């Protein structure tokens, strides 16, 4: 399964965007460029705007002001992107049935679905669980199945919103290993997490958000070794940002 972000889909540009809910600014004057390469990790305290930014980049919510472009185009091809939320819903089907449904929705020809399903089951390490009802899988297994469903679209860009927030360490490691594998296949991963250790393990570059604003963006090695802002220094030190 070749998954490589086509040049036409990247970079994703968020240009001076505001997102308002009523009179409340959830995102304010945020500009961000997401380029091909290693995972971009969004960090920041709860309420910083991480999930909202992912949804806006995905095109799931409109921006009040500013613009979002994919490869310089206002409207990105919907097949080039996928998003995985923190608590994905499992269909009342087997694990394999969930993937077959995702492949059908992605327009994969029926004759190819069995082989693609087997490939995705193997990729996410669910061999032997194909026939198990998805809702009877463990939390970690469900999250890996949700990743397989997202990959059924063969996306150029994969958005992940706190994918291991409720998982134990072993399940979290399985998800992180999978993210490394996906990124190595050329898929651009953009992931929100509140876990600094996870950001250190996965990030190519780090974006720190606070109160809906972009505070700092830098390669991970620079961000953790020599943060440029007071907010970043506090956050890395484990202090509360208020």
Secondary-structure map:
Blueprint: E1 12-21, E2 24-34, E3 40-43, H1 50-58, E4 65-70, E5 81-84, H2 95-105, H3 110-123, H4 139-151, E6 157-161, H5 169-184, E7 188-192, H6 196-202, E8 205-210, E9 213-219, H7 220-225, H8 230-236
Parallel strand pairs: 3-7, 3-8, 5-6, 6-7
Antiparallel strand pairs: 1-2, 1-4, 8-9
Helix pairs in contact: 2-3, 2-4, 4-5
List keywords for this structure.
Rossmann fold, alpha/beta, 6-stranded mixed beta sheet, globular, about 35% helix, about 240 residues, 3-stranded antiparallel beta sheet, 8 helices, about 25% strand, single chain, 9 strands
How does this structure look, described?
The chain is α/β, with parallel strands linked by helices. It has a domain of 160 residues: 3-Layer(aba) Sandwich (Rossmann fold), CATH 3.40.50. It has 8 helices and 9 strands. It has a 6-stranded mixed sheet, sandwiched between helices. Helix 4 runs parallel beside helix 5. The longest helix is centred in the last third of the chain and has 16 residues. The radius of gyration is 18 Å and the shape is globular. The N and C termini lie far apart (45 Å).
């Amino acid at each position: 399964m070749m998954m490589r972000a086509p040049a036409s889909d990247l970079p994703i540009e968020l240009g001076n965007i505001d997102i308002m809910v009523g009179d409340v600014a959830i995102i304010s004057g945020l500009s961000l460029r997401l380029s091909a390469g290693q995972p971009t990790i969004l960090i920041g305290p709860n309420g910083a705007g991480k999930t909202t930014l992912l949804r806006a980049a995905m095109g799931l919510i409109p921006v009040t002001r500013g613009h979002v472009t994919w490869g310089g185009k206002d409207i990105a091809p919907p097949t080039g992107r996928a998003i995985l939320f923190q608590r994905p819903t499992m269909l009342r089907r087997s694990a394999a049935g969930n993937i077959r449904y995702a492949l059908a929705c992605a327009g994969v020809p029926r004759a190819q679905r069995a082989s693609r399903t087997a490939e995705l089951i193997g990729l996410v390490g669910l061999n032997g669980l194909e026939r198990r009802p998805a809702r009877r899988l463990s939390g970690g297994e469900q999250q890996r199945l949700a990743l397989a469903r997202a990959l059924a679209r063969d996306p150029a860009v994969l958005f992940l919103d706190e994918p291991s927030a409720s998982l134990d360490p072993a399940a979290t490691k399985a998800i992180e290993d999978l993210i490394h594998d996906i990124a190595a296949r050329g898929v651009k991963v953009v992931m929100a997490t509140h876990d600094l250790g996870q950001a250190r393990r996965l990030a190519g570059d780090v974006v720190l958000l606070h109160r809906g604003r972009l505070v700092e963006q830098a390669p991970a090695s620079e961000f953790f070794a020599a943060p440029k802002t007071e907010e970043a220094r506090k956050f890395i030190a484990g202090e509360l940002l208020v």
